[in-house]
Amino acid sequence: MKTLLLVVFLSLIFSVQSQDFEIVPKQKTIEIGTSYVFHSGFEKTAAFSEGASFDIAWLVSGFQNKRKVFISIPLGFYRGAAAGSDTVSTSRMFYGWTIRHELRKDKKMIPFLAYGLLLNQLWLSNTEGHGMGHETRFDVGTDFKLSGVKVFTMHLSYSHATFPAFGETESKTMDFFSLIAGLRF
To answer: Contact, 131 vs 165, CB < 8 A?
Structure first.
């Protein structure tokens, strides 16, 4: 029995070594953006925030001359400064995953649709500590190919974020649009 297991194990190792594996292409993206909060369950929060994000994306479809689909893991931070003494400044960190579908292939301009589920940490200047919640995001945008593998990207996002707790029985929500631009490489 031990001999049989050894033979099976060794044959699997040699068969795997003889296969040609394709390395999955990945992209890294650095972005900056601005957000406009048009609905907030929190009192008098900053309407505008600016921030930056970084993500790594892996190609999951589109290997054989088809439209590409990427899954990415973003990490970002946005800060909303108080517009006056009667508003509350905000800080929001997010991380999670997004799926991006390219709508054309191998062109100079490639429109895309994306959606994601993100976790958020929210700090309010008038509240001690911070709250955690989740965000659902939808993006529409375009990638503009530059030289080599560099790509300029621009997109508009709609996000709905829910924050349970903050010492209350009902969840608080925020809805916002973001205009984002960056570089993929």
So the answer is: yes
